[in-house]
């Protein structure tokens, strides 16, 4: 193949990938689960939320404020020193849950965690 044909093929593949990213639906789900100490506390259907509200979670003197709006969720306050969970912002995809390790809180889309064997690490995911 001539170099010009390879360049044309490469450009076409890049355009197809870009179009797929734009037009395919995102991986966001409608149902969010909130865990504390590995215990499911809340299951929230984000598509059914009509008014914003806050959820206060407390555990051994530590606290977190979870802000729920129509279609999204985030942590707005945490008593932990690093504030990674607050800086995370809104839950953006199934691949990146919101986690507050010091306060043992995990917020993720339903179905994004399974009890199957992790083939790469050899453990349970």
The CATH C-level name of the domain at 31-109 is Mainly Beta
Q: What is the topology, as strand order, of the major beta sheet?
A: 2-1-7-6
Number of helical segments with 4 or more residues: 2
**Percentage of β-strand residues:** 25-35%
- Quantity of strands, as a count: 7
Per CATH, the architecture of the domain at 31-109 is Sandwich
- CATH names the topology of the domain at 31-109 as mini-chromosome maintenance (MCM) complex, domain 2
The backbone outline, from C-alpha atoms, is: elongated
Structural class: alpha+beta
Order of helices and strands: HEEEEEHEE
- Nearest-angstrom radius of gyration? 20 Å
Main sheet specs:
4 strands, antiparallel
Overall pLDDT: 83
* Helix share, percent: 10-25%
Unreliable runs, pLDDT <50, ≥5 residues? Answer: 114-118
Descriptive report:
The chain is of the alpha+beta class. It has a domain at 31-109: mini-chromosome maintenance (MCM) complex, domain 2, CATH 2.60.320. It is built from two helices and seven strands, in the order αβββββαββ. It has helices at 3-23, 84-88, and strands spanning 31-36, 39-45, 53-59, 62-69, 72-78, 98-100, 105-109. The strands form two sheets. Strands 2-1-7-6 form a four-stranded antiparallel sheet. Strand 6 and strand 7 form a beta hairpin. The protein is elongated, with a radius of gyration of 20 Å. The model is unreliable at 114-118 (pLDDT under 50).
